[in-house]
Amino acid sequence: MTANFQSEHLDYFLDIYGQVDFLPIYGHESRLYDINNNMVIDFSAGIAVNSLGHAHPALIGALVEQANKLWHCSNIMLNQPALELAKLLVEKSCFDKVFFCNSGTEANEAALKLARRYAFKNFNKKNKIVSFKNSFHGRTLFAVSVGGQTKYSQDFAPLPSGIEHGIFNDINSAISLINDETAAVIVEPIQAEGGVIPADINFLKKLRELCDEHKAILIFDEVQTGLGRTGKLFAYEHYGVEPDIISLAKALGCGFPIGAILVKEKFANGFEIGSHGTTFGGNPLACSVALIAFKIISNPEFLTQVLNKSTVFFNIINEINNDLQIYDDIRGIGLLIGAELKDEYKNKARDLMNLGFKYGVATLTATADVTRFTPPLIINHIDINYGFERFYNAIKELKNS
Ligand SMILES: Cc1ncc(COP(=O)(O)O)c(C=O)c1O
């Protein structure tokens, strides 16, 4: 890293990310390297994006092959990679129709707009959206308003209206809010940014029941939980609850930007020609990469190894915690894992993440009190052990500081 990288950076960029002191130049599998070949073990995977690690040869192959053929032709024309990807997504899920966009936020925006329009077309006075406190659904004005963390919306008023927030995992709260005026209910099967908090099975089942009773559309935001992250292709499979729409992004392109919603047939006519759209969504470059990524990730053997590695991760974090006593709770599903700091280390998750980088391991936070682990799903056992050796030293330094 150049000595003045941090200060130079602030000369040119809006100061919104508070970036760590590491400038990666290239990556390979679960490792990132800076210009001096300092290596960081990546337990973050670009925030649950690089599920196949860095520089996966099959993804590079797909990208280069497509780059030599056709980059973009706009959605006034069909394209072959988008069609193949859509077919596969439908085949491997409980959904019937696909819309491609470029990010998770856009996927949620599309899902919510579709739900509102479906209700507008089919019912009288039905436009409420029910979401949950502590949730995160992205950064457009609609998405921060639907999201349940006021810190992301409070300074941007006036906000879109008709949105209510219940208490996550509280069935009575859901019952009190969902009624015949509800157009859609949106929920993360695991609240990820909000602290890695899995939904209770009975909570999601009740949401399904309430949505059926009141003819509301149930949307699962699977931007972070989808595509193998939890050891199943989609997190809804863990719960035995089928939503009407899911939103996807992050690992769909494994680093190449692409998002999508998958929609049940019944609700597909919420959109008609012209009612929604995007210039770049579903472009051939993104779809050709996502197609190969999805073929690899949706293989049942691939998903099984995610669950095996999840056990290894949980075991090691628990071992470290038995020794160093830093976390109160270690939770999550598959390779989306959160570890909540004990009270004496309150607000120290970011300090610990920064120390991790100092010792050569990239982790994430989820709120100020939770360390989040979202490693590449292809991470090998050597790198798991290597990363945790480094993280152990980071925790020791935090405890001594
Ligand atoms: C559950 C969830 N929804 C939506 C988003 C927003 O996705 P994007 O940053 O691609 O717009 C995120 C991003 O972290 C997320 O975790």
Fold and architecture overview:
This protein has helices at 5-12, 45-48, 57-67, 80-91, 104-122, 141-146, 171-177, 201-214, 236-239, 284-297, 300-324, 349-359, 381-400, and strands at 26-28, 31-33, 39-42, 97-101, 128-132, 163-166, 182-187, 190-191, 197-198, 217-221, 245-248, 259-263, 327-333, 336-341, 361-362, 364-365, 370-373. The chain is globular. It has 401 residues and is α/β, with parallel strands linked by helices. Helix content is 39%, strand content 17%. The strands form four sheets. The chain has a seven-stranded mixed β-sheet with strand order 4-12-11-10-7-5-6, with helices on both faces. Pyridoxal-5'-phosphate binds at residues 47, 103-105, 108, 136-138, 188, 192-193, 221, 223-224, 249.
Determine the N-to-C terminus distance.
Answer: 25 Å
The description of the largest β-sheet is: 7 strands, mixed
Structure summary, number of beta strands: 17
Order of helices and strands: HEEEHHHEHEHEHEEEHEHEEHHEEHEEEH
Can you list the strand order of the major beta sheet? 4-12-11-10-7-5-6
Q: Compute the average pLDDT.
A: 97
What is Rg? Answer: 21 Å
Unreliable runs: none
The ligands bound in this entry are: pyridoxal-5'-phosphate
Number of self-contained structural domains: 2
Helix content: 25-40%
Report strand %.
15-25%
Shape: globular
Q: Which CATH architecture of the largest domain would you pick? A: 3-Layer(aba) Sandwich
CATH superfamily of the largest domain: Type I PLP-dependent aspartate aminotransferase-like (Major domain)
